[in-house]
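Slide 14.
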Amino acid sequence: MTRDDIITEARRWLGTRWRHQAAIRGVGCDCIGLIAGVALALGSADAAAFLDHPAYRNYGRQPDPRMLLSACAELLEPVDEAQRGDVLLLRFTGEPQHFAFRSDPGYMIHAYTVARRVVENRIDNLWRGRIVRAYSLRGVA
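Slide 15: predicted structure.
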């Protein structure tokens, strides 16, 4: 899978309704489901493991930051600087609780509860300040 493959697939999810714990393109997903659904569509065994793992699939509307960090450590590769197709871990409050794909320079794709759907928006100063870490899907060429 390439970085272009990731963004092409993520853009196919644009407009998908926000739905807690879902990961079905065109039907519904949350931010975690978007990452897992895109990765699964591209053949990621890690995404399949995530979607089948009860501890990772049974999260509240405000996910446990320890669970998120554990899932990231187990299923993703940390990177120093996010590139196109990498996963951004963000926070709205003090703890990490949201995921997005970095798309074109200065943009991201995410299932955003406020918009009630998957959107692609600019990473302005507010969003930039919310980024906690960046990860790469395993197997990205």
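Speaker note: The chain has one domain: 3-137.
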